[in-house]
Amino acid sequence: MSDTFPKVAIITEPSSGIGRSTSVALSKVGWRVALFSRREEELKSAAEECPNPTLIITGDVTSETDVKRLFEKTIKTFRQLDLLFNLPFYLLRILEIDTLTLEHWDSFISIPIEELPLESFQAVLNVNVVGCTMTKLAKYVVDGAMQADGVVCPEPIMDIEHMVDTVVHITGLPSTVQVLEIDMMATKLPFVGRR
């Protein structure tokens, strides 16, 4: 991360849950944030909770044109980019493993950035939340999630604040420290993956 302030972050899917909580938390510690999602009303609502300058950009994270516009508008508005926080939660609608294709998985873990000005930002932080945090999207996990052996059973969850506090801590580290990836999961969740 850069040691200068204010820093600028792009956060995808910040309308609710992890994205919203992270947007608000980063803004509260001095970050300027660009919020990117398809739902404009939810973006406006999230932006109202951010005390520092906030940019709202509507678009689809799977669209190369929309993502390119996101980067261009963010850099034009804030003149820099320090962090990409990518949360494409649209994949969570696919709950049955039988319907998950390689194309779905690829779109979940990647954002089309091949032609973007990557030299203009300081870091991309990959946060893997294995299992679930207590958000609206967690209901299916609390009620029961399909396991590798075909059994549906409840899974442990963790408080969203633990994940958000971790991101805020990491983004506050000096430029002499680099964190590329974090894997977080609730206690008692089978180590990496379902039971």
TrEMBL record:
It comes from the Eukaryota. Gene3D superfamilies: NAD(P)-binding Rossmann-like Domain (3.40.50.720). InterPro entries: NAD(P)-bd_dom_sf, SDR_fam. It holds the Pfam family adh_short. SUPFAM superfamilies: NAD(P)-binding Rossmann-fold domains (SSF51735). PANTHER family: EG:BACR7A4.14 PROTEIN-RELATED, ZGC:101858. This is Uncharacterized protein. It comes from Sphaerobolus stellatus (strain SS14).
